[in-house]
Amino acid sequence: MINQRIQEALDFKAKGNEAYQQNEYKKALTNYHKVFLYLNGLVDKDSELTQYAQNQPKMNENQSKQICEIKTAVYNNMAQIYIHQEQWDKGQKAAKNSLNLKESSKGLYRLGICEAYLNNYYEARQAFQKAKQLDQSLNIQNYLDLIDKFEGQSDKQLAQKLKNMFV
Predict the structure, then answer these.
(1) Of the candidates 119, 48, 58, 67, which has an alpha carbon nearest to the alpha carbon of residue 88?
(2) Of 61, 70, 90, 134, whose CB count within 10 A is highest?
């Protein structure tokens, strides 16, 4: 039963990936959400919810790892779609969900993009720098330069507002 649900989730992930390649973002997101419908509720043997799922089959360690990998990838894919759609808050949430499951340079990179567009420059810089530590091949310098520029503009705007308050 668990392997069947994992396979169905993988099928929806593949359909989502295919829709993404066709720039059909709504269809991709629909398929990605279906992944979670198949995987959520499965309980591994070490889960605190095990006592409530006594009639449910328990997954083994390999199944648990596979589910974690699938969920991580799907949240990362969803973050990328939200970035394309300029829905920064949703992208931020998807990237954080991915990172809560497993830290990755891809998740951190996408989180950095969303944080930057949400004007959370400190968080964006932290995410980009951590992503770079995990993957030296990432080119984050352009983003760091933009963050420096935006922080400088914010500082000037704040200084002007403060100056006007005391005039």
Answers:
(1) 119
(2) 70
Sorting pLDDT into bands at 50, 70 and 90, what band is 56? low
| 121 vs 130: CA distance, rounded Å | 14
Element (DSSP H or E) covering residue 163: helix 141-165
**pTM of the shown model:** 0.83
Answer yes or no: are the C-beta atoms of 42 and 59 closer than 8 Å: yes
Buried b (16+ CB within 10 A) or exposed e, 45-74: eeeeeeeeeeeeebbeeebbebbeebbbbb
Q: Which two tokens stand for residue 18?
A: 């295919």
pLDDT band at 31 (very low <50, low <70, confident <90, very high): very high
| Tokens matching residue 2 | 């668990």
Phi-psi region of 41 (alpha: psi -120 to 50; beta: other; left: phi over 0): left
Please calculate the CA angle 7-72-26 and round it to the nearest 5 degrees: 75
The string of pLDDT tens digits covering residues 111-122 is 999 999 999 999
Distances in whole angstroms, Cα of residue 4 to Cα of each of 1, 9, 30, 57, 63: 5, 9, 20, 12, 11
122-146 confidence digits (pLDDT tens): 999 999 999 999 999 988 888 888 8
